[in-house]
Amino acid sequence: MALTRMSYAEAAARAVANAMRDDPRVVVLGEDVGRGGIFGQYKGLQAEFGPERVVDTPISEATIVGAGVGMALVGLRPVVELRVVDFALCAMDEIVNQAAKNRYMFGGQGRVPLVMRMPIGMWSNSAAQHSQSLEAWFAHLPGVVVMCPSTPQDNYAMLTQALRGEDPVIYMENKELWTLEGEVDESAVAVPGRARVLRRGADLTLVSWSAAVHTATQAAAQLAEQGVQASVIDLGTLWPWDRAAVLEDCTRTGRLLVVHDAVQAGGFGAEVAATAAQATGCRVARVGAPRIPVGYATRLESVARIQPSAVVQAAYSLMKPSLATTAA
User: Fold this and answer.
1) Same fold: 3-185 with 196-327
2) CA distance 119 to 141
3) Which of 3, 64, 81, 277 is 20 to 30 A (C-alpha) from 160?
4) Homologous superfamily of domain range 3-185
5) Which residues are tagged catalytic?
6) At residue 265, does pLDDT exceed 90?
7) Helices marked H in 152-196 — which ranges?
8) What contacts 111, CB < 8 A, 6 or more positions away?
9) How many Å apart are CA 108 and CA 131, to the nearest integer?
């Protein structure tokens, strides 16, 4: 097993480059892709494959996704770059009513093997229109796969798998993970809907995805220092999500805490918590962002950020309900 150290952005660029070398049907289109993308996630691709396969587009997300859907229907395998999930809102008709529905509405005669990259999460000091985590919107949408990689290894393996699929993939990298470095095994295969269990504990199950996985992992380490052993599960794929792995661990621990950067109200954590509570009877709780726009100023932005300390506090409340009553 050969390992190469690379950043989250470099892993993505490597995955797309390898797919383009292996399959001439893979094309890229979007704003700034010719110069490597605003995060370097397409670095060097236009120089290698030319402007006919790495296509710079006008500033029109509806056009970008609409063109991608058309390309996919005639046999290409497009990667459309939407820069950040916030801008994908300008293309919702194409995503929701065209890409996601085509296979169903036409009885499988049309397939849309389209990868839509729309980074989620905060982007430091970028304010309310560039800092949203909208993964729950797309997990709610029938007809698409939803992926949220949390490490360079995941970004390579999951994007490679997404590029091999036959259905549209909502691919949600995190805006603040692009420089994160790690070892990448290019032979590793990602299985959609299979979670990673990062650590096992007997007292509590922490479930998360994307950048919040790192927050949950830090919180688990702090809890361990205080004698509380928590499992940490990275879902990776939100749809389909690994119910079996989560339910097995919740059955063991009897407690589930879901952690995500998205607004807690209506977040995908509610789906995980409700499913686990119904299936296992475990105690459940969630940690998510308050229902407020993300502020530009660092002090305002920090109010919307989920910190390990908040996860630790929620874990203790879940472990010892009487503490929550006392604190209130």
Assistant:
1) yes
2) 18
3) 64
4) Thiamin diphosphate (ThDP)-binding fold, Pyr/PP domains (3.40.50.970)
5) 130
6) yes
7) 152-162
8) 72, 73, 102, 103, 166, 167
9) 36
